[in-house]
Amino acid sequence: MNKDFVDALSQVAHERGVTAEELISNFEEALRLAYLRQRGFKQKDVEEEGKGPIVEVQLDPQEGHLEVLEIRRVVEKVEDSDKEIDLETARKYDPEVEVGEEMEFPVDPEEFSRIAVQIAKQVLTQRLKEAERTRVHNEYKDKEGEVVTGSVARVDNRGNVYVELGRGEALMPPKEQIPTERYHPGQRIKVYLKQVQRSTKGPSLVVSRAHEELLRYLLRQEVPEIAEGIVEVKALAREPGSRSKVAVVSHNPNVDPIGACIGHKGQRIQAVSAELGRERIDIIQWSPNPKEFIRNALSPATVGEIAIETSEDGKNRARVVVAKDQHSLAIGKAGQNVRLASKLTGYEIDFEEAEEITDLDAAILKAAEKDESLKVSQDAKSRFESLFKDGE
């Protein structure tokens, strides 16, 4: 073996993203197993049952010198001829050797047949793949739950999209894609790293464009008030590519959370929407009061009184009074509005249709009077009543 071969190994190591030391170590192990297999010992027998001789392979990266050694222990009586040598025979090689010592017997490289070389190549290839898988897993295991940027590598006939993430390739199955988007090789996309696992086939990286956390990340990128903690995203509900609802609250009384998210002439929210395939995004005001939160979540529909209860199965339910002309708007196209509102608030929402809600403020006041948590003051009640009288 010459120095050029070792240089070639170093080059392969660089291309595969592993260290030269790691590759040389894998090469030495591949030759060791190849030698044992040529001697008739399977890898399982060697590793699990300890069969076969003790073999060491040493490759000097500086000189390119390869040495294969069989190690045998000197004993009085041989019980395992693969690992032991009797004292009388041992002293033919070294007259001063004693029982219990180990002797090294060089193996002539010429003993390696073509089959052994092929075996070594196969083992080395396998070890390289294992090293790459370990490296990819270690690189991405701490990034699980983050948003990363990658490029589409290919799309298979099942609709799976494979995304190149630096040195690793991730899978984006159809259910994690935005239905309205079409992907093509070379396309740069932001994805949520949903899962990083190790398997017998290597690390499994699963990414998503449909995950709610991708929307949260994009809002944080586009809205400085969210990044700084002035505005907080309290809840998200999303139907990818179609519509989302985002509940926000401001920790600064001088900052309007909805206006901050929308931006001047809608620039901020439009940028987020464009990144998500023109997904419609509703920004609503979060409230600690569940009735008010539900009312806001059902926008743009205008609803009346809201009654909250907990069913026998432990689920939170809300009964919402809605006028006929607002009923279809509250439900939304194919039930989307109420479905997102329910997911956003955590309440199963049922509607009770009324003939007409003539004055929304009156309905809100009536609901507030029944809900002690709102504690509507008498002054507020008087102001409402005076407004009604003025209107008459």
Low-confidence stretches: 372-384, 388-392
- Helix content bin: 25-40%
Mean pLDDT: 84
Order of helices and strands: HHHEEEHEHEEEEEHHEEHHEHEEHHEHH
Count up the helices. Answer: 14
CA distance, first residue to last residue: 104 Å
Shape: elongated
**Percent of residues in beta strands:** 25-35%
Rounded to the nearest angstrom, the radius of gyration is 35 Å
- Widest beta sheet: strand line-up: 7-6-5-8-9
State the total count of DSSP E strands: 15
Structural class: alpha+beta
Major sheet attributes: 5 strands, antiparallel
Can you describe what's shown?
It is a single chain. With 392 residues, this protein is of the alpha+beta class. 40% of the residues lie in helices and 27% in strands. The chain has 14 helices and 15 strands. The strands form 4 sheets. Strands 7-6-5-8-9 form a 5-stranded antiparallel β-sheet. Helix 2 packs antiparallel against helix 5 and helix 6 runs antiparallel to helix 9. The longest helix has 27 residues. It is elongated. The N and C termini lie far apart (104 Å). The relative contact order is 0.06.
